[in-house]
User: What shape does this take?
Amino acid sequence: MSAAIGAPAIHVLLIEPDGLVRSTVASVCRELEIVRMHQATSLAMGEQWLRAWPADGLMLSVADPDAALELLGRLRAGDFRCDAGIPVAVMAPACDAAMLKRLKELEVRRFLLQPFRLRDVIQTVEQLWPAEEKIDA
Assistant: This one.
């Protein structure tokens, strides 16, 4: 698979059921050339993608906490084509102490409480997957 000139080489999977959030985040990342954001509308579609393609990172909605944390547990166990230790950011509408503890055990690097600003998501992406410096010829 060849990438377009100037296209980011970092592949991040965004699993988010909300189409507006998903498409906005992906399009901004594409426009700013931060990462190549791949989109999945459900955990099942995200799992299929992770089985087929290696990812450099994951942004995961935990609208369904049990299923999302189970998927994340399998990721950390090495069940997919990507490295088990890839950076993960989680987006959730609510979080209690038990969930926060579980996210920490699963090595989630960033947590975004919804509703969030797009700027917060972009800063998270830039921190977890810094772009390589472009050298002008």
